[in-house]
Specification:
Helix content: 25-40%
Number of helices: 4
Largest sheet: 5 strands, antiparallel
Shape: globular
CATH topology: HIT family, subunit A
CATH architecture: 2-Layer Sandwich
Number of strands: 5
CATH superfamily: HIT-like
CATH class: Alpha Beta
Strand content: 15-25%
Distance between the termini: 39 Å
Amino acid sequence: MPECVFCDEQVIAESQIYQTKLSRIIIDKKPIAPGHCLIISKRHVPSFSYLSPDEVEEVAYLIKKLGLALMRAVRAEGYNVLFNEGVAAGQTVTHFHIHIIPRQIEERVHVNPKDVLADAMKSRAELSPDKLKEARDRLAKEIY
């Protein structure tokens, strides 16, 4: 059996619902909500940062396609698109995957980015103009 669950042919055979040239959609075996799916890259890469431009484009297409399908299939009224980029962010499987979780308005348990970031937001300090410029310039040099 392969070390990576998303590279395991048996797991894929049991859970795949759709595939494209570069990606797959599989049903989550431990769903947060009915219809919870994962979009995974066919190529084994550890995270989003390692995807090729073509893979990124295909993943974006699949997010939209799957989201619309979930609205029809499970009568979702919305959906969460979630992924953790790296161990420090909570990633536990080192093969790129995105969770697509269908949602209903009346749900009590849901993921709300405002809630997730609430504690971090409380302790944030505003950057001085110099620090803001320094951070902006440093990041601008790295985007190529």
